[in-house]
Amino acid sequence: MRFRLKAFGLHLLGSILALSLILGSLYLGWYRWPGWYLADVVQVFMVMTGVDLVAGPLLTLVIANPSKQRRELTRDVGVIIAIQLVALIYGAISLWNGRPLYYAFSENQLQLVQAYDINPSEATLAGQRAAELAPHWYSLPRWVWAPLPEDADERAKIVASAVAGGDDVISMPRYFKHWEAGLPALRAQLKKLDELGYFSGADKKVLKERMQAAGLAPDQANTMVLSGRGKPLLAVFDRNNLTITAIIRAN
């Protein structure tokens, strides 16, 4: 039994190190709060954790028989590690392709923009028309303003595309502008929590309690929805300088 436990411990330690390296790098670079929550990556994370930290080491515990020939044991452990690597690579690629690139203010809300929201041709156009805010493979998350273009024809095309379920302006970085340029428009869109239509009554009750606990006034026009693929969050602003003072979840 000691041999099995030793093999299990070594395998678990190696799995923890590999998973921590990949998830830690992605978290520190792209998925820091509120990125991981809005991107709704819990399912991918659970698959990676389940295969790499649970199934792999447990299978090693089962097959690690000291009476086995070393060659046979090495082969069996190698098969387990290969399956773990497939799951690890799948998860890492999924997280990389969905990494947060922008938090965009557009119209009346803040929205998460992930890497796979922007197609390569759009990224190329952005490099030509708005190079400073264009996405690159090394780009870290940035806060930007994504207004609809002033040209009426372009504006109409984007609106029609968005209504039909196609690309919206938040997936077109060629139109992005610096965050500071959009603050006057953002100020005009701030609302009281009760005026927001994105949260249920129960959610608003929880959000009010959490705002009050943080010393924030729920009856002021200082909030805006922050949405992504997961459940939306509440962004609370300081109305004086329009900095975000809190990002609050309802669950």
Topology:
Blueprint: H1 2-31, H2 35-39, H3 42-63, H4 70-97, E1 100-106, E2 109-114, H5 120-129, E3 142-145, H6 152-163, E4 177-178, H7 183-189, H8 201-213, E5 223-227, E6 233-237, E7 244-248
Parallel strand pairs: 1-3, 2-5
Antiparallel strand pairs: 1-2, 3-4, 5-6, 6-7
Helix pairs in contact: 1-3, 1-4, 3-4
Radius of gyration: 23 Å
Principal-axes shape call: elongated
Query: Structural class given helices, strands, pairing?
Result: alpha/beta
Main-sheet strand order equals 4-3-1-2-5-6-7
Would you report the number of β strands?
Answer: 7
Structure characterization notes:
With 251 residues, this protein is α/β, with parallel strands linked by helices. It has 3 domains: 2-97, no CATH class; 100-188, no CATH class; 190-251, no CATH class. The protein has 8 helices and 7 strands, in the order ααααββαβαβααβββ. The chain has helices at residues 2-31, 35-39, 42-63, 70-97, 120-129, 152-163, 183-189, 201-213, and strands at 100-106, 109-114, 142-145, 177-178, 223-227, 233-237, 244-248. Strands 4-3-1-2-5-6-7 form a 7-stranded mixed beta sheet. β6 (233-237) and β7 (244-248) form a beta hairpin. α3 packs antiparallel against α4 (70-97). The longest helix is centred in the N-terminal third of the chain and has 30 residues, at 2-31. The chain is elongated.
Describe the structure using short key phrases.
single chain; 251 residues; 3 domains; seven-stranded mixed β-sheet
